[in-house]
């Protein structure tokens, strides 16, 4: 019985060590960043199936400043905080909107980009403003800031229905097929698709809600947050952030 008890203790210790390694939070020189790989132009797959985007370049530059190796892990965006808190990823970094509700779950860096939630409709649609959506069918990405913005808007009560999708691409596909009348979506994402598919979409005149993007880190890991914020500040001061922004947006949109 004593030998068996010792074996149980040793096994438990081994499991504890493994669990600790899986939640290193960047202490081992590596960072695992959770992304939505269909969120262009922030993070998405190009024609060669490579993960690219503004947030991807921005994260790589920050990781270099920190002296860390970075890996991008596509995740179910509706489970992003669970992925972070379980230790499977070290950061949520892909157009992640700062909200009071999310602040209760994760630590945030300072905001680095301004955004807003807008409504995209087809270019030939007669819809022009938010009130025109009364009695219409709207789509959006589930458990996203678009869903939060719509939930907080009086517009929701006027709609005929709201369909939720795993990602924006599927929502826009239903819009093009005219199964939807509009899609609530991040402005930066909407403008990207409008530039790629000219004369396909237009934006309604009014936006639903302004917002800001930040990077989410597990609560309790203030050391990693401080280290990351220092790297981001350096990217702003040396002009690297502006270069990355100009590459993807044609101008410097990064907040100092």
Question: Would you kindly provide a brief summary of this structure?
Answer:
With 256 residues, this protein is α/β, with parallel strands linked by helices. The protein is 38% helix and 23% strand.
Structural features, described:
By secondary structure, the protein is α/β, with parallel strands linked by helices. 38% of the residues lie in helices and 23% in strands. It contains 9 helices and 14 strands. β2 and β3 (43-45) form a beta hairpin. The chain is globular and about 55 Å long. Mean pLDDT is 91; it is low at 1-22. It holds the Pfam family SBP_bac_3. Residues 30-252 form the Solute-binding protein family 3/N-terminal domain. Residues 30-251 form the Ionotropic glutamate receptor C-terminal domain. Keywords: Signal.
Draw up the topology in text.
Layout: H1 2-22, E1 30-35, E2 38-39, E3 43-45, E4 51-52, H2 54-66, E5 69-74, H3 80-85, E6 91-92, H4 100-103, E7 106-108, E8 113-122, E9 137-141, H5 145-151, E10 161-165, H6 168-176, E11 182-186, H7 187-196, E12 201-203, E13 209-213, E14 216-218, H8 222-237, H9 240-249
Parallel strand pairs: 1-5, 1-6, 9-10, 9-11
Antiparallel strand pairs: 2-3, 3-4, 6-14, 7-14, 8-11, 8-12, 8-13
Helix pairs in contact: 2-8, 2-9
